[in-house]
Design a protein that fits this description.
single chain, 94% helix
Length: 67
């Protein structure tokens, strides 16, 4: 019985994590817009920050998947 409850909690918490991630990225983008006063510069800065992070997470995932 507890295994079923844990599965339901895991499924619902995954959706919350996605919403929090998008909210954080949006907030960061708006903060960069106010700092640089330009949407273009803010977009470049945001991608410059996020792409290495996604690359590092991808490498960690690939090492775990291959092991």
């Amino acid at each position: 019985m507890t295994g079923q409850i844990t599965d339901v909690k895991d499924k619902t918490s995954g959706g919350v994590a996605t919403i929090v991630f998008y909210f954080t990225v949006t907030t960061l983008f708006l903060m960069l817009v106010t700092k640089y006063e330009s949407y273009f510069d803010s977009t470049i800065t945001l991608f410059t920050l996020l792409l290495p992070l996604l690359g590092a997470l991808g490498m960690i995932w690939s090492r775990v998947a291959c092991a």
